[in-house]
Each structure stands twice: as structure tokens, then as C-alpha cells.
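Study this chain:
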Amino acid sequence: MKAGSFITIILFIVTLSSCYYDNEEDLYPQQAECDTTNVNYNDQIAPIMQNNCNSCHSGVSPNAGVITDNYEDLKAVAENGQLWGAVNHEPGYTPMPRNQPKLPECDLKKIRIWIDNGTPRN
């Protein structure tokens, strides 16, 4: 067998063995669906605050005097723009949660919807 034929056969084998088809679902797993229908304080916003904010922003000595563990106090910081500025890491606000990345995009969407809807107590 000639050297040129041998190289051609090797290239053919390498080419065939390197071809594969990936399943799109395996390459790009779907994120859980973000349900933003009927966003309300009790079912979505309060749990987000419980999981991410209340450990520092509740009790008799809350950090920066910001309280997030009850509707009235959270409504006040939501309506003055402080809540959104902090959780969305906007300039001029202390990014929250402190020294951590932003909240998940779905949580941010829910907070934004709640604020845009007038911070209802529902």
C-alpha cells in the first residue's frame, strides 16, 4: 500500500469517528420555567425575602435599618426604589444580597412585577 493511500484511509477513519450528533436537550438543558402569572406577596415575594434577605434585614437591629420580613416595611423600601436598586445591583445602591451574585433572573422578574403592580398585599 502506498503512503498516500494509507494517509487517505487514516483521514477517512478519523473523519468518520469524529462525526457525531449531539442532542440539543443534552447540550442546552432547559431551565425550570419561570411562572410570573399571578405574582403576589404571600406566595412569591415573601419566600424570596425569607430565602435571601430576612436573615440580615429583620429583628431588632436590621442591617442598614432595612426590614424585609413583613409586608409594610418591605413595601416602603420597594416604593422608594431601594429594594429594586439593591437586588438589581444598580449604581448608587449597595448590591444585595451582600457580597453575592444577583438573585436568580426569575426572582428578579417576580420582584419587578410586584413593584410594577403597586406592591399589592395579596
Remarks:
- The first helix runs from residue 3 to 18.
- Residues 41-116 form one domain.
- The helical segments are 3-18, 24-27, 41-52, 71-79, 82-87, 105-116.
